Amino acid sequence: MTTIAFIGLGNMGGPMAANLVKAGHKVSGFDLVEASKAAAKASGVTIADSAAASAKGADVVITMLPAGKHVVSVWTDIVPEITKGALIIDCSTIDVDSARTAHGLASKAGLLSVDAPVSGGVGGATNATLTFMCGGDAKAFAAAKPVLEAMGKKIVHCGDPGAGQAAKICNNMILGISMIAVGEAFALAEKLGLSHQALFDVSSTSSGQCWSLTSYCPVPGPVPASPANNGYKPGFASALMVKDLTLAQDAASAAGAVTPLGKHAQELYKAFDAAGHGGVDFSGIIQHVRAMAK
Ligand code: NAD
């Protein structure tokens, strides 16, 4: 049994902490929101009075927070409380610079640290089937792997500190672009009188095949579990896609990379979000694509 502190018990962190309890770990947690604390308590997490109090004496500390500024601020508060040699993992999706700043705080205090953003959404967090993309040295990754295995099914060591965030940003840029491409293809098919099922049957086994089509199809019917069959209820909200595509654009500017389709995808999702659809699943972008034709 490992003593684990879990800070940030929201939509993702709540069920992830619950899975650590289920795996037999002793979990102490903290969040700013009463409802999140109550839900975590009901799943067996002991609620501490502050982030620092939950981190004190823990073997492993995990953060799952909205953005880089929250992670750097919380790590600044808690790192001095954590026992030297312990492990700290950030599972939030944040910018690479903040991730490296956080690693620097941990390293100065003699802690092992890993950035480990996730793919798989709330469903993956609940069912312990997340993919973790990890950045950090080999010793820190080896210590983190067994803990992450209680919350996910695939744990990938991507490289040095910040590499997990880099992988997450690149992957989600592919996802944002490919979902628009699939939406455009269905919107064009509709105009051409081609049925959704016919396009799906061809493209799902042809060169147009991709995850956005075969696992998360943006029209109802061909993939019964996709959010299109459920009024585009998230799933993965469009506002979070804007966040990830913006992180990709910021990273591209800072690194001198050129990502024209990533930029265009960011602009389309921003417009969808600005029209009041930030809470709609990101596959709902097909509605925005159709509306552009009118
Ligand atoms: P959320 O807003 O539901 O949860 C974040 C939690 O952090 C909130 O409960 C908030 O109260 C808490 N928090 C903020 N500041 C805090 C502080 N100083 N101390 C303690 N708690 C604090 O968000 P979420 O959907 O759980 O996402 C968390 C992270 O995971 C984000 O970085 C997001 O981009 C990423 N992510 C989300 C999904 C998804 O489908 N929701 C998928 C992959 C990755």
Helix-strand blueprint:
Elements: E1 3-7, H1 13-22, E2 26-30, H2 34-42, E3 46-47, H3 51-55, E4 60-63, H4 68-78, E5 87-90, H5 96-108, E6 112-115, E7 118-119, H6 121-127, E8 130-135, H7 138-148, E9 152-159, H8 163-192, H9 196-203, H10 211-214, H11 238-255, H12 260-277, H13 285-292
Parallel strand pairs: 1-2, 1-4, 2-3, 4-5, 5-6, 8-9
Antiparallel strand pairs: 7-8
Helix pairs in contact: 1-2, 1-6, 4-5, 8-11, 8-12, 8-13, 11-12
Task: Note down, in words, how this protein is organized.
The protein has 294 residues and is α/β, with parallel strands linked by helices. It folds into 2 domains: 3-161, 3-Layer(aba) Sandwich (Rossmann fold), CATH 3.40.50.720; 166-292, Orthogonal Bundle (N-(1-d-carboxylethyl)-l-norvaline Dehydrogenase, domain 2). It contains 13 helices and 9 strands. The protein has helices at 13-22, 34-42, 51-55, 68-78, 96-108, 121-127, 138-148, 163-192, 196-203, 211-214, 238-255, 260-277, 285-292, and strands at 3-7, 26-30, 46-47, 60-63, 87-90, 112-115, 118-119, 130-135, 152-159. Strands 3-2-1-4-5-6 form a 6-stranded parallel beta sheet, with helices on both faces. The protein is elongated, with a radius of gyration of 20 Å. The N and C termini lie far apart (59 Å). The model has no long low-confidence stretch (mean pLDDT 97). Bound molecules: nicotinamide-adenine-dinucleotide. Nicotinamide-adenine-dinucleotide (NAD) binds at residues 7-13, 30-33, 36, 51, 64-66, 70, 74, 92-93, 118, 121-122, 236, 240, 243.
